[in-house]
Write a structure and sequence with these properties.
- There is one protein chain.
- The chain has 866 residues and is an alpha/beta fold.
- The protein has six domains: 163 residues, no CATH class; 115 residues, no CATH class; 135 residues, Tandem AAA-ATPase domain (Rossmann fold, 3-Layer(aba) Sandwich), CATH 3.40.50; 59 residues, no CATH class; 246 residues, P-loop containing nucleotide triphosphate hydrolases (Rossmann fold); 62 residues, no CATH class.
- 36% of the residues lie in helices and 12% in strands.
- The protein contains 27 helices and 21 strands.
- Strand 7 and strand 8 form a beta hairpin.
- Helix 7 packs across helix 8 and helix 14 packs across helix 15.
- The radius of gyration is 33 Å and the shape is globular.
- Bound molecules: adenosine-5'-triphosphate.
- Adenosine-5'-triphosphate binds next to helix 8 and helix 9.
């Protein structure tokens, strides 16, 4: 039920509730008093009369100035699924806890008792739904609004409501502006400086507003939306010399931002607004504003936010979107309030493209940080027909007030390409999440997005370089077209020299190495202007520690035999075979690594390999080193750490099937998410796992569920097999070590030794190094030879080392391979290790781990130089 004010909607009653104190009767008495007083002395007496009324605006002399004022948005209640705000106005919060709402002209439209949370609630007042936008803090503006409310109140008090409009002009002094809307008021006052013009439709300006046309000679003092002196730790954006006002991130969101996120928001803002970071050293720092005046750089309008997973790329992007939606540094052509506060922002329409599985996550994050009522979010539902999608996109672009953000999956881009690209200048900002999807220069989606008429681009990716510089060029050229020159130029100047220097066969050729280094540095100099990369070591400050453990698992005799038979049976000719022609065999070997039982249904095995010699016993599920290690780990955890949960990730649903059966046989409660899980079930599965204490394990398919899931209910994760692409594994591993995690986390990577599992791991390490080199500015020595291992030739890929404890270790270390005992923390009693050994502190362990990683790299370097 709506909480209606007493007199609202009753026939023949005045719209405002004006009661006299002392229970005196209402309108008749009031009207007669007013009339008498007007004849005597309009202004002074009127004040006196108003003082006897309840709920007068606080501008009145005997009212407290402590009442807070807010801007509001309001609308008529509607049953529409996607609602929009129709009008703007003001609210006053009385000390008594009553909220009074006024329209833009200062006329009262309703009242409610204060409901918390004040800003997030949609208040039902009379026939309106109202939401508070932000609190007014600027004294000048507050005074003006109070005056407006006061004038309006007075005119309402002295004028019989039924004849208000006709009598007011006769009774009030001719200078009264009580009934003039704010925008007109502004025009009247500043008519010499500004003229009212009809906004151009493509500037997204609302038709009822007044637009400022600054003439050079008469520049007005504008005010920012937020007053930084009133904000604790304000986040003020950098600006160019021609900026009219400061842009300050809404404290509603900036108060949550961590230090690296504040820096990130500023960085993105600078890039997409073409403010040059390179000039930062010479830039003017305004000490009162904690921001810099930067040079304009027309080459840059895009940003690559390459922070590792979990650093809050989504939150930072939302902060930038909200800031630019509400604010602008350049006020020309923008409607302003009476006191010069811009009423709309620089950007009106935002397009976010992401993997379809992340659409829900984006929506949740918008809701978490802004509340969905503040900004209209439209998502393209995966069940939509192409026709429905096309109409949705058309409407999104056409209708100004309803939606500001359109979120859709990459696969929808092609079906709505015409709608997106046909019209110019309609999208103000493009965000591509998991943007490494655009790495292929021939991708059709990339071509469509390149054809979009949008200047500001943000590409989010924790793993932007996955394979080579070719892909890096594609991504960079998409964000900031032309910045690295044409592709032939890039190839000649950067790609060839850098790649040659990385080739191990050139490792003693000083000339090649030097040129490669020089060109790397040059390329980094260009790209660092708009690339921000931080590692998730930053999170150690906010999250419990994370320990990555690689468990090298000895293959069983059955596995070794299966490897040999498969390779022999495939009868490969290494002189003619290519990587692609051996994919079937590679998959087969990977399956054997997980469990020999998987091969019986493998198409390559059944069609190409002579399997007459295979006995049924060979297909025993548990004839797998990794499965034996996994089961022992699970049992240990279950017994010794009953509160801890575990996520088990595999690239193969068949492997998940095997593990599922093993869990069932051990009566371990689990849930599962893979490609066959319906999108609408995903959230409830995740929520039930995180909340339900009895669910012990979560079986996750890496490809279909690795991205965007929040599985902080678990503190341990097993990566049962590797992908060639390290980013897939990294994504999966980040599911538990993220915000909301309360326990120290352990990530176990299971690798079958001496076979393809290890080769994949080694290749991953090489690729990861490549991305470190170009993105991690913090890396100490960019001179490190990236090729940790020789190029993988096919022969190497299919060679099986029967006797090694770890081929990876053999390659990089000369020690006896016993290693350090894994250290567990006595400070974390919950966390007993699988082997129950004694422990040192978390910090010591983390340091040890980092030291060991560095030692790894330098040892290998030495080895290669020998
Ligand atoms: N300052 C913060 N305070 C509290 N929670 C935060 C903060 N920043 C981010 N988070 C939360 O951390 C989680 C990860 O953030 P987000 O998804 O933005 O990271 P990301 O860098 O985009 O990671 P991924 O690449 O894995 O998607 C989210 O649940 C987010 O709400």
């Amino acid at each position: 039920m709506m909480n209606l004010p007493k007199y609202e909607n009753k026939p023949f009653k005045p719209p405002r509730k004006l009661t006299l104190t002392g229970n005196a009767k209402t309108s008749t008495v009031k009207r007669s008093i007013s009339r008498t007083q007007i004849t005597a002395s309009p202004l002074t007496k009127r004040t006196k009369t108003c003082a006897t009324l309840t709920e007068t605006p606080s501008a009145l002399p005997n009212q407290s100035d402590n009442n807070k004022l807010f801007t509001i948005m309001y609308r008529k209640p509607s049953m529409k699924k996607h609602k929009t705000w129709d009008k703007d106005g003001y609210a006053e919060l009385k000390q008594s806890g009553i909220l009074i709402f006024y329209n833009e002209s200062g006329a009262r439209i309703g009242r409610v008792s204060k409901i918390e949370p004040l800003l997030e609630t949609i208040h039902k007042a009379g026939s309106w739904e109202v939401q508070l936008d932000y609190e007014l803090t600027d004294t000048k503006e507050i005074t003006k609004i109070r005056t407006l409310l006061k004038n309006n109140f007075e005119s309402a008090s002295i004028t019989p409501p039924s004849t208000a409009s006709s009598t007011a002009s006769n009774v009030l002094p001719s200078t009264s502006k009580a009934q003039i809307p704010i925008t007109q008021l502004f025009t009247v006052q500043t008519v010499k400086k500004f003229k009212t013009v009809l906004p151009k439709p493509n500037e997204h300006t609302s038709l009822s507003t007044t637009v400022n046309q600054d003439t050079n000679s008469t520049r007005r003092n504008y005010l920012p939306v937020f007053v930084q002196t009133k904000i604790k730790n304000p986040l003020v954006m950098n600006k160019s010399i021609d900026a009219d006002v400061d842009v300050i991130v809404d404290p509603l969101i900036s108060k949550f931002l961590r230090k690296h996120q504040r820096e990130g928001v500023k960085f993105i803002y600078d890039c997409i607004n073409g403010l040059s970071q390179v000039e930062a050293s010479t830039a003017v720092v305004d000490p009162t504003q904690q921001s810099m005046i930067l040079e304009k750089n027309s080459d840059i309008n895009g940003c690559l936010l390459a922070d590792e997973m979990g650093l809050g790329k989504t939150l930072m992007t939302i902060a930038v979107i909200w800031t630019l939606y509400k604010q602008t540094p350049l006020v020309k052509n923008i409607p302003c309030s009476q006191s010069g506060v811009p009423l709309s922002g620089l950007c009106k329409k935002f397009l976010i493209i992401c993997p379809v599985t992340l659409i829900g996550n984006w929506k949740r994050e918008f809701k978490k940080w802004l509340n969905l009522n503040r900004i209209g979010i439209l998502t393209l539902n995966s069940n939509n027909t192409p026709e429905m999608d096309r109409n949705a996109v058309k409407n999104f672009l056409k209708v100004q007030r309803t939606y500001q953000v359109l979120i859709m999956g990459y696969e929808k881009v092609l079906s709505v390409s015409a709608e997106l690209t046909n019209q110019k200048n309609l999208i103000d900002m493009l965000v591509c999440d998991e943007g490494h999807r655009l790495k292929s220069g021939t991708s059709k989606v990339l071509q469509v997005l390149k054809n979009l008429d949008v200047k500001r681009k943000i590409l989010l990716s924790g793993t932007p370089i996955q394979n080579d510089l070719n892909e890096f060029y594609t991504i960079i050229d998409f964000i900031n077209p032309g910045i690295l020159g044409s592709f032939p130029y890039f190839k000649k100047r950067y790609m060839v020299p850098i790649t040659r220097a990385r080739d191990t066969s050139n490792r003693y050729n000083e000339e090649i190495l030097e040129l490669g280094e020089e060109r790397s540095r040059e390329m980094i100099e260009i790209t660092k202007q708009f690339t921000l990369r931080r590692t998730n070591s930053i999170l150690t400050e906010y999250l419990p520690p994370r320990t990555d453990i690689i468990l090298f698992c000895k293959p069983t005799e059955t596995q070794l035999q299966a490897f040999d038979n498969a390779i022999r049976g495939a009868k490969l000719d290494f002189n003619t075979a290519s990587f692609n022609s051996t994919l079937g065999l590679i998959t087969l070997l990977k399956k054997i690594c997980n469990s020999p039982s998987l091969i019986k249904n493998d198409s390559y095995f059944t069609s190409k390999i002579d399997h007459s010699q295979y006995q049924r016993a060979n297909f025993n599920v548990l004839n797998s080193g990794k499965l034996m290690v996994l089961m022992s780990l699970l049992k240990h955890l279950r017994t010794n750490c009953p509160e801890e949960k575990i996520v088990i990730v595999s690239n193969y649903t068949q492997t998940l099937d095997i593990i599922e059966n093993l869990l069932l046989s051990e009566q371990m409660i689990f849930c599962r998410l893979d490609g066959s899980t319906l999108p609408k079930q995903r959230d409830s599965i995740v929520m039930s796992f995180n909340r339900n204490p009895s669910t012990f394990a979560f079986l996750l398919s890496a490809k279909s569920g690795g991205v965007g899931l929040n599985l902080v209910g678990a503190s341990r994760l097993v990566l049962f097999d590797n992908d060639w692409n390290p980013s897939i594994d990294l994504q999966a591993m980040s599911r538990i070590h993220r915000d909301g995690q309360k326990r120290p986390c352990y990530i176990y990577r299971l690798i079958t030794t001496g076979c393809i599992d290890e080769k994949i791991l080694q290749r991953q390490l090489m690729k990861h190094n490549l991305s470190q080199k170009f993105l991690d500015s913090s890396i100490e020595n960019t001179n490190v030879n990236d090729d940790l291992f020789d190029k993988q030739d096919l022969r190497d890929l299919f060679s099986i080392n029967h006797h090694t404890k770890s081929n990876t270790h053999d390659l990089i270390c000369t020690c006896d391979g016993l290693g350090d005992e894994i250290q567990y923390d006595t400070e974390a009693p919950d966390s007993v290790p699988p082997n129950g050994k004694k422990c040192t502190t978390w910090n010591q362990r983390v340091n040890n781990y980092q030291r060991r990683s560095k030692k790894w790299t330098s040892l290998h370097k030495k080895k290669r130089q020998l």
